[in-house]
Amino acid sequence: MAKRADAAGCAVPRIELLVIQPTPFCNIECRYCYLPERNSKAVVAPETLVNLFSQVFASGWLHDCVSIVWHAGEPMVLPVAFYRDAFRMIDRTKPGGLTVTHSFQTNGTLIDEAWCDFFAEERVNVGVSIDGPKRLHDRNRLTRSGRGTFDKTIRGIRLLRRREIPFHVISVLSVASMAVPSEMFDFYAEEGIERVCFNVEESEGDHVSQSFADGEVDAAYYRFLSEFWRLSSAMPGKIKFIREIEHALQQVIRPKDAPFNNQLVEPFAITSMDWAGNISTFSPELLGLKNAQYGDFLLGNINRDALVEMPQRLNFVRMTKDIQAGVAMCRERCEYFSVCGGGEPVNKLAENGSFVSTETTYCRVTKMRATDLVLNALERVPPSSSGRTEPSLPLGMPAHARDQPARSG
Ligand code: SF4
C-alpha cells in the first residue's frame, strides 16, 4: 500500500488505533503486571480527552475508521457515566463518515448489570483477562491482599453470557498452563467461552518473565497450541476463534505481494495517551517505561503540544531510526519476516536491550512457533481432487517452508 506524503515528501502518519489510559489504577495486583503506576488513582481530565480528539480529528492522520482501546489500568474502576460522557463528546467532535469503535480490556471483576447495559448500548468490544481454571488463574491474578480473583472474574463472564454480550478472553499462559491444554480447553468449553486469545507471560518493563526463563518455552507453546487446536477441531462449535491460529493463517495464506502491516513499527499507527495527556507511539507499553538510553518514550503532552509536530521531536526521530534499523535487520536475517514484519519494539528493548536487534523469546514463541504450527498443518492437507500430489502451499509463507519441513518446535 502506497503511503501518503506531505508537501515536504515525508510519509503522513496514519492512526489506526488509539490506546487511552483513563486511569493508571488497577483494583487487583497480578504477579506479572508491568504497569508502573497501578497504585495511582489519577483520572484523565475531560479537557485532556477533548484536546486529544480535537487534535486527532484535525490531524489528517485518519482514514475512514479508528479503534479506541480503553486500557493500561483497569478501565472499569471509573463509573459508566465517565464513558458515556466521553463517547458523546467523541461523537460530537468526529468528522462525518469516520467510524469509531470502542474496546475495553478488563479483568472482569467489576462487571455488573449497569456495565452490561452500557456495553450493549454502545456496542463495546469486551475482552476479559482470565488465565484458565481457578487453580491456574489464582496463581497470578490476585487482589492486593493476595487472594485469588477467579470467582469475581468468572461471575463477570457468566453475566456477559447471560446478557448475550459478545466478548473474548485473553489468557496469559504460564509454564503450568501450557502443560495442560486439555484442562484449559475443557474450562473454556464448560464456561461457554468461544473466543480465546493467548499471551505468553513476557518480559516487559521491570517484569522478568518466569516462563521465558525456561529454555523450552517455545517448544511448550507449540505443543500447547497444537493440542488446543486439535481439540477445537475435534469438537466443533465449542471454540470458534483462537486468535493465534487465525492470525497465523491470515499471514501465511495471503497473496505473495500483499504487504504485511506491522502497526507496532509504523509511527503513530498505534498512538497511546496516558491519563495526564502524554503521548507515545509504537508498542503501547512504552508509554509508562523509562530507560537509561532514551530516558522515556514520550513525544509530548496533548494539553500543551501540537500532535502534528510530534514527528519532529528528537526522541521520536531517534526511536524511529532505531526501530526501523531493527526492522531492517529482521528483514535481512529472519525467514519469518514476511509473516511478522519485524516484531514488537518493546520486547526487543526488554530482552535484547536495544530496538536495533532481531530475535526475542517473545517472537520465537508468538511468531515463529505459531507459524510453524500452521505450516505443518497445511503440509498435512491431503492432495487435492485435481490429482496433485503436493499440498498447495500458501504464498505468503516464510521461504524455508517451501524448501524443507517446518520445524516441529
Ligand atoms: S520473528 Fe523475530 S526475528 Fe523474525 S522478523 Fe519477527 S521479530 Fe524479527
Give a brief outline of the structure.
With 409 residues, the chain is of the alpha/beta class. It has helices at residues 46-58, 80-93, 113-122, 134-140, 150-162, 175-178, 181-191, 210-213, 217-234, 243-252, 314-333, 337-340, 345-352, 361-379, 399-403, and strands at residues 17-20, 65-70, 99-106, 125-129, 167-173, 195-200, 241-242, 270-273, 278-281, 290-291, 295-296, 300-301.
Question: How would you characterize the overall build of this protein?
Answer:
This protein is an alpha/beta fold. 39% of the residues lie in helices and 13% in strands. The chain is built from 15 helices and 12 strands. The strands form 2 sheets. It has a 10-stranded mixed sheet with strand order 7-6-5-4-3-2-1-8-9-12. Helix 2 links the parallel strand 2 and strand 3. Helix 1 runs parallel beside helix 2, helix 9 packs across helix 14 and helix 10 crosses helix 14. The two termini are 34 Å apart. The structure holds iron/sulfur cluster.
